[in-house]
Each structure stands twice: as C-alpha cells, then as structure tokens.
PLP-dependent aminotransferase family protein (Pseudophaeobacter arcticus), 978 residues
Amino acid sequence: MAISVDTFFLNSDAQGTLQAQIQEMIAEGILSGRFRVGEKLPSSRKLAVHLGISRITVTLAYTELLANDYLTSRGRSGYFVSENAPVPPIYTPPVQSREAVDWDTVLVRKFTGGDTPRKARDWRGYRYPFIYGQADPSLFDHANWRLCSLRALGQKDFAALTDDYFDQDDPLLIEYIARHTLPRRGVIARPEQILITLGAQNALWLAGQLLLNQSSKATIEDPTYYTLRDQLHHVGCQVDCIPVDQDGLPPQDISDDTDVIFCTPSHQSPTTATMPMARRRELLQRAHDIDAVIVEDDYEFEMSFMRAPSPALKSLDSDGRVIYVGSFSKSLFPGLRLGYIVGSEAFIRQARALRANVLRHPPGHVQRTVAYFLSLGHYDAQIRRTAKVLQDRRQVIEEAIIEHGLTVSGEGVYGGSSLWMQAPDGINMAHIAEQLKPDSVIVEPGAPFFSAQHRKHNFFRLGYSSISANRIAPGLALLAQALKQAETA
Amino acid sequence: MAISVDTFFLNSDAQGTLQAQIQEMIAEGILSGRFRVGEKLPSSRKLAVHLGISRITVTLAYTELLANDYLTSRGRSGYFVSENAPVPPIYTPPVQSREAVDWDTVLVRKFTGGDTPRKARDWRGYRYPFIYGQADPSLFDHANWRLCSLRALGQKDFAALTDDYFDQDDPLLIEYIARHTLPRRGVIARPEQILITLGAQNALWLAGQLLLNQSSKATIEDPTYYTLRDQLHHVGCQVDCIPVDQDGLPPQDISDDTDVIFCTPSHQSPTTATMPMARRRELLQRAHDIDAVIVEDDYEFEMSFMRAPSPALKSLDSDGRVIYVGSFSKSLFPGLRLGYIVGSEAFIRQARALRANVLRHPPGHVQRTVAYFLSLGHYDAQIRRTAKVLQDRRQVIEEAIIEHGLTVSGEGVYGGSSLWMQAPDGINMAHIAEQLKPDSVIVEPGAPFFSAQHRKHNFFRLGYSSISANRIAPGLALLAQALKQAETA
C-alpha cells in the first residue's frame, strides 16, 4: 500500500531544519509500525508540493534515509520502506507523554465496573464451550443470509437504504414484524407502535431512560440479566430485586410504590422458569392496581422445541400497560445487534425521539437484510433446524447430567438453549469456572445474575447452543470431576 | 406465503364456541390485512393439533368461512384467503380500544420537540434538492462496496463477525483508522484510544454523557449542529452558546467556568468557517488555562478539494485534552451509521463501558465491510471522485449565486459540500423553504442551527452534494425569484 502524502504535516514549532523534520517524520512512521516494509513513499515532487517546500529538501531527506537503510530505492519507481528498516511487529505508537487532564475528576459519570461480567472472547478455541448467547455457525443459514444481504445491497434498494432515515425504520421490516412475528406471540400492533433497536439490551435501555428517574422505583427479578441491573443503577432509581420462584416473579411481592416492573414471563432469565397463565393474569392485575408499567423481555421464544410457547404477556394486556421487547440477535447471531420494542404510541414516540438523539437509527442495510431473510422464509426454516438440533442436545445434556449426578435448578419446559444449574452449597462457581479453563471447558458462573443482597455463588448457567452433542458428555464429566474435587477439598 | 399455525391462539376468556373463535380469528386476520389474498391457511389437522382441539371443529370453521367467501378451497391443496374476501389496502390493525396508562405522567423524560428539525424523507422526488448530508448514489462506488460486503460475509470472516463482541470493535477497522485515517489529520493514537460509534452524533452523545452533568457547563458554537444542543439540553448542564465569527469560535469569549468546549475548527458547522492556526493555539491555551476538555467534531475533512486541509486541532494537543470525533457516514453514506471517537485511554475506557451498557457494539459486519473498503483503497478513490464532482458543482453554484445576486455568508476555503447563505433581513427562510416545495426545490432553513437567544431567520444552508450540476442554476433561479417576491411583498 502506498503511503499517502496527506499523512505528512510540517510543524511550525519544531526545532531543526526542514530536511531533519522530514527524516524524523518518516523514521517515526517506520519505528512506530505505521509505515511498513515495502510500502511506497510519495514521490519527492508530490511531497514537496504538498508541504510547500523545495523538492531538493525532500530529495536530501530521502537520500539520507536511504543511506541509513530506512528506505530503499527501486530506480525510477521511487522510494520504499526498506526490508532492513527496524520494524516493530504491530503498530504501537508511543504512549502520550503527558496527561494534563485529571480524568478521574473530569469524567462526571463512570460506567466501568458494575455487574456485567467480562466474558471470554476466545471461546471458539475451547473444546467444551457451555457458553450462552453465541451463535453456532454450523446452524446458521449462511448462504441465504448472504443472498439476502446481496439483494439488500442491490441497486434498487441501495438508494433507499443509504439515506439518512433521521428517526425512521425500514418499513419492510416493520411490516413483517407487525404481520408475522408479533402475531405468533398473540400480539397485534400497528407500525407506529414498533421501534427497531440495537438489540434487546438497547430496547431495555430506552425503556429505563424514559420511564424511570431518581425518584422512581423499578422492580426486577432476582436473579436477572445483569446488564439490566447496571442500566437501572445508572438511571439512579430505586430498584427492588424480588427473588423468583419456580413460576417466575411472584406478583404479590411487588411493592405498591413500584413504577416499572421488568420481567421475562415466557422464559425467566436465567432460571428458565415459565410463568403460568394464572400468574400472568395476577401480574397484570397487580400492575393495574398499583398503576405500574410492565416491560416484558420475551427472549428466546423461538427456541420452543418441546412445547408450543404460551402467548406473550403483552397479548393479555388490555390496558396498553405492557411494553414488549423482542430480538433477532439471539436467533440469528448476536453480532447482528437488532431487536424491537413494542408499546403504546405515546411511549414509542418518545423512544423514537430518544433513539434519534443518541444514534439516529440502526443501519438501514442491516434492517433490510433481516426483512428479506424473514419474508423469504429463511428465518423460520432456520428456527426449525436450530430447534431440532437443540432438542437433540437437550436430551444428551439431560442424560449426562443424570449420569454425573449434577443438579438442575431450572430447565425451560418449552425448550431454550440453557439450563440453570445448582452446585452444592459452599462451592464457588467462579473458581470452578476458572479452574476448568485449562481443561478447555467454559461454564458461566451464576453469581453476576444475583443482586448483591441475594447473591449466591453455587449456581451456574449451562448453555448448549454452541457445543456439539458429542462434546457434551465429556465436557460435563470434567465439570463433575472439578465439582467433586472442590467438595472433598 | 403460508400463514403460520403459530399465529393462532385460543383465548380461554373468550365468549362463544371454539368454532366461532376460529372463524373470528381468521376473519380478523383478513379484515385487518394481516392475512392476504392467496395466502394458505394451515391444514385443519395442523391447526387442530396446535390448538389442542378436535379436527372437526376446525373443518367446520373453515367450511363456514368458505361459504362466506373469506376462504377458497383448491381441492386437496387446502384452504386459501379468497380473492373475494374484503381486503384493506395495507395492514391496519385496529387502534387499541383502551389506554389505561396516563403516558404523560408515566414518561418521566420526553425527547420529542427540541431543535432538531424534521426533514423531508422524500427528497429524491425533488428536482432541485439543495439538501445537505445525504448521499449521491451516482457518486458512490456501489460495486466495490458490494464486493467488500460479500467478502465480509464470507465463511472465514463470518464466525468472528457474528459473535457477540461484548464491548470490543473490529480490530481490522481500528487498525486502519490508527494507521491511515488519523495520521492524515496529524493525529497519532493507539487502538485503546479509539472507539467505533454509531455515527458522529453517537460519539458526541457519549462525550456529553460522560463529561457533563447538571452542575457543569458546556460551551458550544452558535450557530451549531442542532442535535448537539438537544443532547446537551437532556444532559441538563448549563450551555453557553458563543456566536462564531469568520474564524470560528473566539477563544476569549469562552467563560472561565466552562468544563467542556464543543467545536468544529476545521470546518465550522454550519457556517463553514475554518479556524486559523493562530486561533487554534489560542483555543488550546484557553482550554488549558481554564482546565476544560475540548470535543472536536472534525466533520467533512475529506471534502477538501480546494486546498489541503490543515491538521486537526487534536494534532496540536499535547495535554491529551482534545477528544476527537470523526465519521464515515458522511463520506460513504449516512445510512451507514459509523463513526469513531478518539481520546485519552481513561476517557475511551468509560465511553466503551457506556456504549456497552446502551447497545453493546455497532454491528460487526458493517465494521468489517468498512475496513475492507478502506484498506483496498476504494474509500480514497471515492473521496477523490467525489471531490472532483463537488469542485465542479461548487464552481457552478458560485457562478449562479453571483448571477442571481444571492449573498454568501460562509464558504469553506478547503471545499465542503454546502454554503452558508444569508437572505435579506426580515425574510423568514422557513417560509421560503415551504413555499419552494411545490416548485420542487429543497433548501434548508438556518434558524434551527441558532440558539434561542441568537436565533436568526434569514439564514439558510445550500447543500450541493445531492444535486447534479445542471440542476443548480435553474434551482437557484427559483430560489432567487421567491426571495425577490418575499422582499417586495
């Protein structure tokens, strides 16, 4: 690659001659790894014009660098970074010499820390990845996704998709969600009641920002999706963390002064509990009585391979009180970052304005690709294929669990892609998880899901969406062994 | 398309027989436009199994709907929505009957309103679109973009890109920005100092959230990018709006208690003023003296077709005090939603955590496509091509402006894609813009760029990035005519 003339600037404050400055710029570029072996320097004429200096100055600088083996000359084709130049393996510009700003004071809000755990980016390198929420590339219909993407990149779509949508979404995608996706959950909504988000997490964030402030109270499930807890922490509202039971969130435990209830009725996250119909009605009645809004995260409903899923809580909502959150990231691939939020028009109008303020809109091309993938039936086919594979794995994992005497605390009656597991009291699953890494096993410690006041360390989540069936039994054997050793230690 | 069995649910509260319920569900689906002419109903066997009822009940319901002409039967291939069924033109589910929630009270924060204007989505239908910030599809290298996208969709990249990145970015894109993009602005940064954002607007939002709260003060240019003002309004900080002059923001007008200065030194938005080097040093000195942080929005630097751009303010920053914002959305296409923010590691760490909290990360595939488009040289080629076309248009527009006696208030000395125009005093450009729409002319009223206290109504922005050269003169003729009429009225 040729080195662009635009990367050269003269510094009017600099010490030394112009020639020395040019030599230094080039030497710095090479030493920092910014310029690489074989890359072509701008011609002396070009660089001289660009910097507004005499060509002879540039030529002298190049000649000097040639003598020092930083550069090499290939006759009339010009100057190149020499093979003998000292080259660091990667681009590592020097750490800034001086930090005059006291960032600790200047940063008035801090977002690091919190309950959201850091996860292994390199999970694909593990033999036994009982990891949750990552894609299994062997299940994804990659060929058709590419075709849909190409179609969305076609000349016809391109003009529409490359525009600035301001605050709008792809009408094709919205229509599909309204006509096909939501009706499967028993939900009927008009386009004005639907907003596309950067994944379900972004939808939860929007709801938290709009519905809560420092004088309000949110009620959340305990355990729950940790990032939701982090989001509410930054809102600064009061948060009631209500322990869930085998049927999910108990409505009678919700305090009278709750403004917003966050819940996962179809498939509690992470315990996988399904809320029975009677309790759903009870929950809606409770919300009605205390005039609270409910945010329903209907995650993983597509993974119902054991029994048809019950309709969403939102489908029973005659008050317009439920805000519904769905996602395509889970069932397609998490790097997609595409979800949706459904609610009363007054709410969606504000959510749209907040989204526009923060980021305008999710990329148009991604929206259109998903719209095609859905409307051509590839999504449904993929869900069916995935469900079949998950069902097989579920059977294998259940058998292995029995064989190794492990304890299941929650297993989705409709299906799902993970089990919620309980290790014996006194076991710290964070330690076990660390210990298992050298054995190429990934399990997810459960502690981050619990609020600080109810935190338990002997739970863990066992995902089976990214591990092939034949790896499950040997992986669980290693886990069982580690647990046994820890117990007897 | 076949109607999925999953969209049928029995309502245990419903009145009437099971057969009547099924008829009603199907009729509702047809009447609301959710089921369309020719779409196939599930087989009676399938629907009966799904609902857990007798097949004869379903068959009776279907027979009844057949008699009423809602459905038609094609012998053994099943039941379909009849051509004679009453079908609304688009899907319009009924408006929810009851809104039990008082959204005005429940929504504790409101984001509608504000200074950000609503713009015409249908600008492509106009003959004379002097619109700003939209792509010109005739300039975009669509073929190579598709190739890059396909490459990023290839089997090799796919696994990496479909993963949940948690809080990380595509290392390829980050490396390119560090090695090639930033050095052109005289900026040297390490990967840990760079974060990818959902466009420049998202970058400004992140900075506002982290650096300001209700007890701090921001200084912004006046006029300025209106959405920035909206963002700061929602932060709740004090905002000083400092009128810019021909050289941009005057440093001596920045008050001592300013915490953060937002500015556009290379190319003031919207006046296009370029800040001279001497003033840049003065601005840095002023920021140093009052210990303020500077957020530099370096927009449109690629559009420097008249003169090489001066290096970014950030390149002169020896304090680590400048946070730099760049974007690919403007120079590629705005629907892309991809930008970056560069700053001290302590700042980027928090920006990364905030981004992860709100939306995790920008879609991986979009990042990788841009990385390829950049590293294969297509981006540079496109910038050169665009610059050439803009240069031609600039000449045409300047000539037409002189011909029609219009007044330029600001014109970028480096180039750019718009002019900042001044109509005679007393003219309200919002009215003129409305008036010109039937003549197929779009111009952008300038008032929203001004703060409330300094608002002027006789300015406007004339974009030339989406209008072909031969349309410029006739479009300006219409504009000049409207202005003349308004003056004499």
Q: What stands out?
A: Residues 123-137+381-488 of chain B form a domain with the Aspartate Aminotransferase, domain 1 fold (CATH 3.90.1150.10).
